[in-house]
Design goal:
four-stranded mixed β-sheet; alpha/beta; Arc Repressor Mutant, subunit A; binds flavin mononucleotide; five-stranded mixed β-sheet; binds FE2/S2 (inorganic) cluster; Rossmann fold; about 40% helix; Glutaredoxin; single chain; binds iron/sulfur cluster; 5 domains
């Protein structure tokens, strides 16, 4: 095969953006797949010739990512997320219905080649559950009754209506304006006004300000950003890179998407000053591949910023050069882990590297690199605009600044809300009328995952905790990506652990055996228990297997994967025991566990 002249020209433009040819492999594969309808053997060989790679190297990379396919798909590809937040709104039933109506199984294409239906993992659209993508476009808040319209073509785009945040938001100040993505609207709101001034500051001064601001990384671990930046080696002559992590794949998390889709220039301006601060001339924004719309929006905004002289060489006469490349991933949760992301950006399978060395000394192409989350980088402009002291005081001690909190699941008002870090509690986020608005349908709260799927579940008695990194850690869980998934008393905790363990098994990159094998064993055990075929011994084995993963894997994915089974075994053991004793899930006989226990003749504690 050969690219059409149009695709060839596009590929040549893309290739020029990268210092190393192989980095262009994902865009090249997308172009080939788009042209051929699938990745054929010919397409693999052709991409190899374009990038000086063997077919085996191209195949090795392509087969890692879920967005590449090796057989044809239907004209309309319907992808239904069945991860936890969507499952709480009936995603599994919707998927089953779609398959039934089309007479196919998951992942199959109808005989006439018109439709393919697939199950996908969290799309970062958890507030708009059930999240569906139709040929890559959002159809959110989807229900079974929408299927007819989706199949007839009458419904192909329906984005989530994000509720606004109370008070005067800082990070979300532009997000609700008309045409908020455009450079004009951003400039009218004061955007880029102080870029020249900030680029005239010395890089060390900016790092000092970021240190004083108490900004901690918003990607999950809460590492102090200024401190991370100061780890860059002073005497390394190699180029430096800033990599903005927009992979946003942690189930429950849909905050970076809001910035990318609604206020891309905020991220671009902040990336420019952050690049200057770490003396980098090149910034990559690695966006998860499923964000078709976000990638388009960012690429348009980057082009606008170049045209206005905010990017490129000698920006606004300051002598500072910064280029930004928007790089789309191709579907792999593990690519959010910083070293896996760098491997992916280098054009390989997104599998993590052994640390040390850390990216600060040995990152992209072996050069000093800083990887930061979208929200973290967005905060840098706020620090420079308002001052480090203002930023620090806006949050709580050691937890500076504004924070985006996601809430999804069984709440009345799912959304991504901004609040000063640590100044609201988990209860406020769930029940506050200006936030989650309470439990849907007047039911009782059963449990809550506070910071994305990899954080230990909390009970309804544990929600009076301030939402900052230290307070949630002290309460025995983690703030993580501040993505709260709320579950009412109709939810079985064994089912919940099973759902998330399915995700971790699916996404394990396979590089180290405790995670590769262990996630599968945990899944088998949980399936057995949930189906009423488990024994008391299985509970011990489940704990033992999870213990053999925790702290023993190459990357923190292993610790993330054991959070759902371990925390439910600890806090909701009675539910596991019920499954073993009664040989069925309590949802078969009751609307809540309390009711099931009463029916089974057990005393319900007050
Ligand atoms: C399995 C896994 C997935 C991750 N996914 C993301 C992600 O989607 N976005 C993100 O910013 N960080 C993610 N991280 C954290 C990154 O490795 C890294 O710590 C972060 O991007 C650093 O940015 P920060 O200091 O601004 O938080 C993930 C980590 C792990 C172990
Ligand atoms: S812990 Fe899992 S995701 Fe991380 S390297 Fe090992 S197999 Fe891969
Ligand atoms: S989009 Fe479905 S769980 Fe996140």
């Amino acid at each position: 095969m050969e690219f059409t002249p149009e695709r060839k020209a596009k590929f040549e433009r893309i290739l020029k953006r990268y210092p190393v040819k192989r980095s262009a492999i994902l865009p090249a594969l997308f172009l080939a797949q788009d042209q051929e309808g699938q990745l054929t053997r010919d397409a693999i060989e052709y991409v190899g010739r374009l990038l000086d790679l063997t077919p085996a190297q191209v195949h090795d990379t392509a087969t890692y990512y879920s967005m590449f396919h090796f057989k044809p798909r239907g004209k309309t590809h319907i992808e239904i997320c069945t991860n936890l937040s969507c499952a709480l709104s009936g995603a599994d039933e919707m998927l089953a219905k779609a398959c039934q109506r089309l007479g196919v199984r998951e992942g199959e294409t109808t005989a006439d080649g018109r439709f393919t239906v697939s199950r996908v993992e969290c799309l970062a659209a958890c507030g708009g559950a059930v999240a569906v993508q139709v040929n890559g476009e959002w159809v959110e808040n989807a229900r079974e009754e929408d299927l007819s319209k989706i199949l007839s073509g009458a419904l192909s785009y329906r984005p989530f209506q994000w509720p606004s945040s109370p008070g005067d938001p800082v990070l979300l100040r532009n997000a609700w304006k008309q045409d908020s993505q455009s450079i004009q609207v951003y400039e009218e709101g004061g955007g880029y006004k102080n870029l020249q001034k900030h680029l005239s500051m010395s890089p060390d001064d900016i790092i000092e300000q970021v240190k004083r601001s108490a900004l901690r990384g918003r990607g999950g671990a809460g590492f102090p950003t200024g401190l991370k930046w100061s780890f860059l080696p002073k005497d390394n002559p190699k180029p430096r890179y800033l990599v903005v992590n927009a992979d946003e794949s942690e189930p429950g998390t849909y905050k970076d998407r809001l910035i990318i889709e609604n206020d891309p220039h905020q991220l671009i301006e902040a990336s420019i000053v952050s690049s200057h601060a770490i003396r980098s001339r090149m910034c990559f924004i690695y966006v998860r591949g499923e964000f078709w719309q976000g990638i388009r929006t960012l690429e348009t905004a980057v082009a606008e910023a170049y045209a206005a002289g905010y990017l490129g060489q000698n920006i606004l006469g300051t002598g500072v050069d910064v280029d930004i490349v928007v790089h789309g991933g191709a579907g792999a949760y593990e690519c959010g882990e910083e070293t896996a992301l760098l491997e992916s950006l280098e054009g390989k399978r997104g599998q993590p590297r052994l640390k040390p060395p850390f990216p600060a000394s040995h990152g992209l192409y072996g050069c000093p690199t800083i990887v930061n989350n979208v929200e973290t980088i967005a905060c840098v402009s706020v620090i420079l605009e308002k001052g480090a002291e203002w930023f620090a005081a806006w949050g709580t001690e050691k937890n500076g600044g504004p924070k985006l909190y996601c809430v999804s699941g069984h709440v009345e008002r799912p959304g991504t809300y901004e609040a000063p870090m640590g100044r609201i509690t988990l209860r406020d986020l769930i029940y506050g009328p200006e936030y989650g608005g309470g439990i849907r349908g007047g039911r009782e709260l059963r449990a809550v995952v506070p910071g994305g799927s990899s954080t230990p579940v909390m009970t309804s008695d544990e929600i009076d905790v301030a939402l900052d990194f230290d307070s949630v850690a002290k309460a025995g869980s983690m703030l993580g990506s501040a993505a709260t998934i709320v579950m009412d008393d109709s939810v079985c905790m064994v089912w919940m652990a099973l759902k998330l363990t399915y995700f971790y098994k699916h996404e394990s990159c396979g590089k180290c055996s405790p995670c590769r094998e262990g996630t599968g064993w945990m899944l088998q055990l949980l399936e057995r228990i949930e189906n009423g075929q488990g024994s008391e011994k299985d509970l011990e084995t489940l704990w033992g297997v999870s213990d053999a993963i925790g702290g023993k894997t190459l990357c923190p994915f292993g610790d993330a994967a054991i959070a759902p089974p371990q925390s439910t075994l600890k806090k909701f053991r009675e539910e596991y025991q019920y499954h073993v004793r009664e040989k069925h899930c309590w949802r078969k006989v009751a609307r809540s566990f309390k009711e099931a226990r009463a029916k089974a003749g057990q005393v319900v504690p007050a």
